[in-house]
Amino acid sequence: MPLGLRRKKNKSRESSNLVENEEVGGQAGGSSVKSTVNGAGLPPPPANLRPKLVFHTQLAHGSPTGRIEGFTNVKELYGKIAETFNLSPPEIMFCTLNTHKIDMEKLLGGQIGLEDFIFAHIKGIKKEVEVFKSEDALGLTITDNGAGYAFIKRIKEGSVVDNVKVISVGDHIDCINGKSIVGTRHYEVARMLKELPKDQTFTLKLVEPMKAFEMLEPRSKGAKPASENKMGTGRGTLRLRAKGPATVEEVPTEFEEKAVKKVDDLLESYMGIRDTELAATMVEVGRDKKNPDEFAMALDEALGDFAFPDEFVFDVWGAIGDAKQGRF
Question: Which SUPFAM superfamilies does this UniProt record tie to the protein (predicted)?
Answer without folding.
Answer: PDZ domain-like
